[in-house]
Amino acid sequence: MADWTHFLQRDMWGAAKRPDGSWASNTGMVYRLDGSGVFDRGLFLIHNGESIHMYGPGRAAGVPIIAGLIMRDEIAAGRIEHKLAYCANMFSALQQFCHPPACWTDGRHHGGLPEGAVIQLDPGLDVSRLNLSRGGTIVARALQEYGAVDVDMGGGNALYGEGLWSQPGKTWAGLLPEDALTGLDIRHFRVLRIENVVPMGMRRTMEE
Length: 208
What we know:
By secondary structure, this protein is mainly beta. It is 9% helix and 16% strand. The protein is built from 2 helices and 10 strands; from the N terminus they run E-E-E-E-E-H-E-E-H-E-E-E. It has helices at 72-77, 134-145; strands at 2-3, 8-11, 16-17, 23-24, 29-32, 84-88, 118-121, 148-153, 158-159, 189-191. It starts with a strand and ends in a 17-residue tail after the last strand.
């Protein structure tokens, strides 16, 4: 939840209202919207092998949930002017590797990408020839211009978009369907140079 009066963002993952009207959340933290959005893992007093979720961040990479979201109003306006955020299920964090802007990781696979890695859609690809929807084309162009940051592990590969549950009357219908990027081929993507890899993060097994 964003507080634009005080420039504060409240991150929560798994928030739910209890029967008595109070709220509970799996995670919770407050940070400034006019800050860098890149956290120093030293601020969390976390130990190698632990989950950073227990220290506040809602993303396993230790980055703000709002960072990289596809916003409804951006699609309506026709342009996204920032990096996107994505999750994938192939990370190298069994060795516990992360890469800035990530300050942590929850991956579990050998040979994958460290959380924080940036992928980019080939800037030379003519996306107008891919039969994408208007919304899909807008996202594809952002992937070409800014790329996307790996921020979490998931059961598949997906970009993150804004949730509209608290905005009555607003909907994604007609703007960006879930399959908007099915016309993109993995061969059209590249991984940007990975430097300053940090060998720390959550310790997991392949079964977890």
